[in-house]
Amino acid sequence: MTPTGKTASPPPSDRPDGNPLRTALYLATAGVPVLPLRAGKVPFGNCRACANGACGGRPHMKSAGPCQCPSVCHGWAAATTDPDVITSRAWAPAWRQAVSIAYHPGGAGLTVLDLDNAAAIAWARMTLQATRTVPTARGQHWLYRGAMRSVNAVRPGVDVKSLMAYARWLGPGDGIMTDLPSAVRALAVREEATPPRGRVASSSSAHPRWDRTVASGCRHTEQYVRTGLEHGLALVRSHTESGAGSQAFQVARFQASRHAQCPGPCGLDAIGAQIIDAAVSVGVPERYARRAVANGLNAVTDGAT
């Protein structure tokens, strides 16, 4: 079976043998856009003509432009299935230095769920529809048919790689590839920026605030808890353009880790409520903020409550 799940396959002599260029040509034949990776397992940098956006850009990240550079420029946007481009003189220097190859999942109509550790794999097995899996150095890639927006850190140790992203080629994997489930699409809930002036995001101002009365089993002093919490809330509020939801997750996880050795209760629910309020105050939808904070608090297994 080919990397895209088709039944047809190239002749055995054309199949990958560990050589990056031959593997790339095999994948291109199967309809998978490819590009070489240099040391560090990252794409090659832009040439001088394309550096710092001088070329006008190419559909890459948030920039789209007219660049038609024949070199391996603009990261994942250089990925192609054209064998003439792959074997061209412009790409030859990259292949001489390549240590591995990457592919553009979205260009092949695929989504890669990058599970970075054992906990992420366990979550996927309990939550998501089984599909083809590819072992990685620390976890697994789960491959689904269907493309979607790429988002990093949708959960601890979980990235979604599809459109506007690349994934390292680590082999065809095992199992039957299934259609992209709605549960994976739901992971990419878009974090909204600060609302336009004059509009107020939904607020959770009725939430309780942390104090010593809700933390009778906490081994920390009140000043210690309040100082750390205020620092975390300030970090969340500083993300006025984007990233507040992700920061809320990180703050919640850090707060939970501080109380991991406490007998409890430590008032983590009240701490979480204040983190939610901080995220909502800079424009994060309350439902998204609640989920981010809950995931952060649950990321640390402990006896504090």
Provide a concise account of the structure shown:
The chain is an alpha+beta fold.
Question: What is the topology?
Answer:
Elements: H1 20-29, E1 34-38, E2 42-43, H2 83-86, H3 92-97, E3 100-103, E4 110-115, H4 118-127, E5 132-135, E6 140-145, E7 151-155, E8 158-161, E9 167-168, E10 178-179, H5 182-185, H6 222-237, H7 244-258, H8 268-281, H9 286-298
Parallel strand pairs: 6-10
Antiparallel strand pairs: 1-2, 1-3, 3-9, 4-6, 4-8, 5-6, 7-8
Helix pairs in contact: 6-7, 6-8, 7-8, 7-9, 8-9
Task: Explain this structure.
By secondary structure, the protein is α+β, with helices and mostly antiparallel strands. The protein has helices spanning 20-29, 83-86, 92-97, 118-127, 182-185, 222-237, 244-258, 268-281, 286-298; strands spanning 34-38, 42-43, 100-103, 110-115, 132-135, 140-145, 151-155, 158-161, 167-168, 178-179. The strands form two sheets. Strands 4, 5, 6, 7, 8 and 10 form a six-stranded mixed sheet that branches. The chain has a four-stranded antiparallel sheet with strand order 2-1-3-9. Strand 5 and strand 6 (140-145) form a beta hairpin. The chain starts with 19 loop residues before the first helix and ends in a 7-residue tail after the last helix. Mean pLDDT is 81; it is low at 7-14, 190-206 and 301-305.
Largest sheet report: 6 strands, mixed
Q: Give the termini separation.
A: 49 Å
Which geometry do the CA atoms define?
A: elongated
With helices defined by DSSP (H or I, 4 residues minimum), what is the helix count?
Answer: 9
Radius of gyration: 23 Å
- Poorly predicted sequence stretches spanning 5 or more consecutive residues: 7-14, 190-206, 301-305
